[in-house]
Specification:
The protein has 497 residues and is of the alpha/beta class. The chain is built from 18 helices and 17 strands. A hairpin with a 2-residue loop joins strand 11 (226-229) and strand 12. The structure holds zinc ion.
Amino acid sequence: MPRRSLRAAFFLHFCQACGDKSAAITVIKMTSKPVVEADFVELPDGTLLDTIEDPNNPGRTLLAVYRDRCVHYTDHFEADDRICVPISRSTDVLKHLRFSRGAKSYESSPSLLAALITIISMCLDMPYHQIALLSCFIVSTWFIEKLPIAPYVALVGLPRSGKTTALRLLDLLCRRSLLTSDITSAGFYETCNRVTPTLLIDETATAGDRRALFHLLRVGSTKGSVAIRRNKAFNAYCPKVVCWTELPHDAALNSRCIIISSQETDQTDLRRVTDPQVQAHADDLRQMLQQYRFENFNRLTLPRVPGDEHLHSRIRDLYEALALPIGDPITRKALAGEFQLQQNINRESLSPIQVALLQGLDEYIHENSTDPTCANRDLTEAVNVKLEYSGETLRASPRQTGHALTLFGLTRRQRTNTGWVLLLTRDTRERIHRLIRRYAVEIGNSENRDGCDFCTGRKPPASAETKPIPDPHNPPPPDAPEGESGEHRELRARKSA
Ligand SMILES: [Zn+2]
């Protein structure tokens, strides 16, 4: 916007805010500084400015100014080089954007998180770990400028499973929340250029605009990313929550999301989101989150926690985005554990070791179609050859191979006099094929693929079934010392060649 028109905007805004035309004229005349609308500004001296809703008039906005650990409210703030005014609610979309109504003190970081968990539990029937994840997501939206990526939540569930309730509750608690179904209007994109909202989108309500929705989701998790609409670029970087009735067939997109499955409930004592008490409590929490944002904006650090080294690529980014604003090390550790589980339900986020293991297994069962077992030690060797081939620097230990086998549900293992072996039952062979398909793992063209019932879809004769004898009293620990049989030594030699 040109300076002159911004000054005019300021003039109008100022008149609206205080109803005193002459005072506005005086201010404009007294300064030659440009007038700038401020969604959020961090000044060089550490002062933070944030647009909030005027507590006395929901139609108007004010600036909350955080300086020297105190907050005050004003309708304009004169900085060295400009005059900042709050974002005005001048458009239909901005009228629906939820600002906090100020900043309010809170007891501690854990108590704030506990309060979020309580309000979600009051309204949604969800397992505790999902509620905790949602609570951390809410806090993270208040620090979007500081996060490595914009976190997404995918709420997945059948119709009437509470997804819409979750969306409306998040609307009460996330920073600058915008519950919208109209993501293709010019007004929507203009809003995203003026503020950084938390977008809450019900996919079923935007069914006609799936392409636009996917475009927005794909580009909007990386800082500086823009969405292109009618040859104009718009800021697309912001946290987002999307409701799906089923996860989209888009592994890359799913891997950017914290996946929360919502289920129908029989609980009859849940509070409605429209309950005045819930609304009042949420309003308080929003103000506390505003205060938490101010106090911690320049104090965030993320020390390593045990377990976070098991996270990789996008899941690690998501974990860091949620953990960064959480001060409590115990909660961070729990989060790291949660994200390890998320990693396992997320298709694209298999670890390099897991991918290499599936590739190694696939190769082994096709090259050795009649072998009844495969030794853990040889499998580990094969995994490491794959890792090296794909340029990874890490290497798997037999213990990690065992862990990965367990995670994949390949638990039919036995200790032999040459070490632990995986029993290549028909079930196991079939499961390996299913895992390869499920996780879309790239596989090579082994020579015996034509002779494989699972690759060709042939029904095998019943006698083809191999019947291992699992020992229920001796479940296979994944980390036992391993021996090596002749045939597996041969495999190892082949792999090393
Ligand atoms: Zn096959």
